[in-house]
Amino acid sequence: MTKYDQYEGFQVDSAKDYTTFTKRKFDTKPFGDYDVEIKIECCGVCSSDIHTIDGGWGERILPLTVGHEIVGKALKVGPKVTKIKAGERVGVGAQSYSCLECRQCRNDNETYCAKQMDTYGSVWPDTGLVTQGGYASHVRTHEHWVFPIPDAIPSALAAPMLCAGITMYSPLVRNGAGPGKKVAVVGLGGLGHFGVLWAKALGAETWVVSRTHAKEADARAMGADGFLATSDGGWNEPHRMTFDLVISTANDFGPGFDLAGYLSLLDVHGKFISAGVPEDSKLEITTPMLIASGCFIGSSHLGSRREMLEMLQLAADNGIKAWVEEVPISAESLSSTVKRLEKNDVRYRFTMVDYDKAFGA
Amino acid sequence: MTKYDQYEGFQVDSAKDYTTFTKRKFDTKPFGDYDVEIKIECCGVCSSDIHTIDGGWGERILPLTVGHEIVGKALKVGPKVTKIKAGERVGVGAQSYSCLECRQCRNDNETYCAKQMDTYGSVWPDTGLVTQGGYASHVRTHEHWVFPIPDAIPSALAAPMLCAGITMYSPLVRNGAGPGKKVAVVGLGGLGHFGVLWAKALGAETWVVSRTHAKEADARAMGADGFLATSDGGWNEPHRMTFDLVISTANDFGPGFDLAGYLSLLDVHGKFISAGVPEDSKLEITTPMLIASGCFIGSSHLGSRREMLEMLQLAADNGIKAWVEEVPISAESLSSTVKRLEKNDVRYRFTMVDYDKAFGA
To answer: Strand runs (DSSP E) across B160-262, as ranges?
Structure first.
């Protein structure tokens, strides 16, 4: 017996066996005054899920339900909730807590709060319960991390915006992507495809940098103005110092990752942002690589609530369609979907659907 | 016999014997329409000189006269010169050529021009002559890289501003150092001392980060508002995410270089600028180091003509005094001064003086 409310979800029990999901009940935190209880309708599949359950980002508390691109219906709201109404269709992304009081939180930088907690795998200090993600029947979260989904966006397409989407949107808008600016997106996967969609919607000249030309047609279909394949000799030469912003979505900083080449694209004081977080995330840079253009190397962590709402509205206003493959959720389909994602066998994002069949209506 | 005009200077003949200077005549480029001919009065000693003559920055054409913090008198100016008048006291820094036509040059970014050339060690394409520096009787340079020195600044104190000074001034002003901003200067050497002087003059709250407290009194005397010694346990803890800008002057990225600690000082999207260029200049960074605050790592290359003039005026207007030890120039004194600089036995900059005794009046 447990003193806590329980939800039901698909959990991974061991990093050694991270593609095996087991459906079971788990405890959830007490319903707080600012909490929203959400019946989950669908959830996107994010590389973060894999980095977490395979131990690549470090040892985590298992068993764990991952999934942090959650869309569902607000069943009830706490007495102090003002941002969400019961009955609304809402989303939850990768973050579910920050102090909301520090300087960072007060400046729309709550994703950089020192006390931030992830939607899954974090420990609630008061109860010791571990936060659980969206491959589950329900989720209970503070209203600050619950976002109304505009009617114009189908749930399965909204889901991946809540982590992959915002991960690209925030660095684009914070680094000036817009009319008159030239943006390169390195890597056309789940993150990259949002990079192209957002950068175009924001009005920037948008290029894709990929290993080969295999995805060029897709990139053009998403709206890319230009496409560079690093397997072409001298691929960067005609483009040296012509970009304002390069956002990398690379999931691997191994030999194929041509950092010097990407940096060579940047105009004076241009910025290179690594939006991906490879499991072995070491980047070796030398001062001369930075001096040539006085460029900057940085990263970015999700995006603020304000940015999340802006992004969803931008998608709704512009009819932006994420490229999503829908997969009915089950222990077996989660296993096969994770395996496919590891092989990059996805164009360009998975959303687990049919939650009613798995968890009941 | 040579068809070129000749100057006289102290040259290094071999990277293996880079502390041996030999006085001899060398060819100089033909006097161009935009050139200024300068009789040198004094020249600062820069770590770049050592990195060049010892081969640490790569093999260079020797013999070579180094020295690129030059102050002297404009003896004559070419027929198209408008920026400098004959008879003026002027300075020359580390750069002596750019195309002045490209996008970078047209935007006050001539130090990032792809065709830039250094004051010493570069090859003039038309003649094949190698540019020679300021441990010499004269220098002949395009007016764009010749700067009038305000009367209020003594020559020996102006000299180190022309490389060390501008190397710190440009990243400070380009990254917003001013009232309401908090700036940390890592390392209190020749560069660092200018960092403190400029940051204070620009109105920023200015801190020094050093290995020990040995230089704290000097830092305070230069105007530093705070001082952190990395040998103090937990030195960075109370200061996490409180700085807007950290400028490193480190000449060595070895074990004592606590990059993660320096980055921890930065507030959201703060910038870490490496103004030094160590001979082994590899920086190993990991995405998590960057994600915590969304900070940026960058570098900087000298500063534009406009910035150079602004900096000299700031020094004149504020009575800013560089901390300079004057050394009469000779083959012997250059050798001993280079050796002292290598041991950081300098507070905080050397200027070679008494050129009339070495080269005649």
So the answer is: 182-186, 205-210, 226-229, 243-248
